[in-house]
Design a protein that fits this description.
One of its GO terms (molecular function) is glucuronokinase activity. With about 325 residues, the chain is of the alpha+beta class. Helix content is about 45%, strand content about 20%. The strands form two sheets. Strands 1, 2, 3, 4, 5 and 6 form a six-stranded mixed beta sheet that branches. The chain has a four-stranded antiparallel beta sheet with strand order 8-9-7-10. The longest helix has 23 residues, at about 230-250. The relative contact order is 0.18.
């Protein structure tokens, strides 16, 4: 029997990047893009490499392009780390796994390194496949922790729980990563929000802006741990936008939501270097009358638009800066 599992791209609506600093966020699952895992029983345990795992290239320029898009490691380390953390969870909870092996293969059409959580999607999809194969049940609130540990502890990728929470719960989720709650319950407060309450949204992205998000966020981490007052106070403000955004969504106050999304991006600029090409995404969207906030570490923005004319204008103007516009599929 061939088992198949999936996890979808993530777009942070509000609160990012405060999730890694005991903040609050609202995120969406974007089903336009996803990672999938195929797993089937075989005599030996085998991980099948994909194109991005290859060490053979046509020339030096292809090697450069590959590294810019996927970094130095490809997807195999994500599979290995996920399998290791799954086994450790089972061992810690006295779960004996059936004596059987498997072959695992991954694939993804999530544009890499533009803030849509492609790496964590592979991890979540892998954990889901392993749960099916070994008939192990892991609580929803616990699965994001295992996924985060695979990337943070095993691979040294600086990340927070947000991506793994939304890819586990799916839909639209408000998250509060209160420090005391995380210490006591080992998870945050996660509240699904009705998708029907959301306004029309768009996502615009530039694939050439690909970067490793952990590297982008490392400077904030260093300054935060040193007690940088500006970083700490700005992250608190960003977290507060998620609370205000939750109320705006529940009240369907889209004017307020529009302003909050713009504020999130502006606060982010106060503590992070934002490249001219990334700023261009914000500026074009706002000139069209739409709101714009970064979906993640950079390379893509999400925002509200008002009517088909504005959406058409966004498509036209974004095309001029080599950016693609999509309507996120949420259901």
């Amino acid at each position: 029997m061939i088992l198949e599992s999936r996890a979808y791209a993530r777009a942070a609506l509000l609160g990012n990047p405060s999730d890694g600093y005991h903040g609050k966020t609202i995120s969406l699952n974007v089903k336009n893009f996803g990672a999938h895992i195929l797993l089937y029983q075989t005599p030996e345990l085998s991980l099948e490499p994909q194109e991005q795992d290859s060490n053979q290239f046509k020339n030096i320029y292809q090697l450069q392009e590959q590294l810019n898009l996927t970094g130095y490691h490809g997807g195999i380390p994500l599979l290995k780390a996920s399998i290791k953390k799954f086994l450790e969870y089972c061992q810690a909870h006295g779960i004996t796994l059936a004596n059987k092996n498997f072959t695992i293969r991954y694939g993804s059409n999530i544009p890499r390194q533009i803030g849509l959580a492609g790496s964590s999607a592979i991890v979540i999809a892998t954990l889901r496949a392993l749960m099916q194969f070994y008939e192990v049940s892991i609580p929803l609130e616990t699965l994001p922790n295992i996924a985060l540990s695979a990337e943070l502890d095993e691979l040294g990728i600086n990340a927070g729980l947000q991506d793994r929470v939304i890819q586990t719960y799916e839909g639209c989720v408000y998250m509060d990563f209160d420090k005391q709650m995380l210490l006591e319950k080992k998870h945050g407060y996660y509240e699904p929000l009705e998708l029907s309450l959301l306004p029309p949204l768009y996502i615009a992205y530039k694939t050439e802006l690909g970067k490793v998000s952990g590297k982008v966020l490392n400077d904030i981490r260093t300054r935060y741990e040193k007690g940088d007052v500006q970083v700490i106070s700005t992250l608190d403000k960003i977290a507060g936008l998620a609370d205000a955004g939750k109320k705006a969504i529940l009240d369907q106050d889209y004017d307020a939501l529009h302003q909050l999304m713009d504020q999130n991006a502006d606060f982010r600029k106060d503590i992070m270097h934002v490249s001219d090409s990334n700023l261009e995404l914000l500026e074009v969207a706002r000139r069209c009358g739409a709101s714009a906030n970064f979906t993640g570490s950079g390379g893509s923005v999400i925002g509200m638009y008002h009517g088909d004319d504005m959406l058409n204008m966004l498509v036209k103007e974004m095309r001029k800066i080599n950016a693609r516009v999509i309507k996120p599929v949420l259901l």
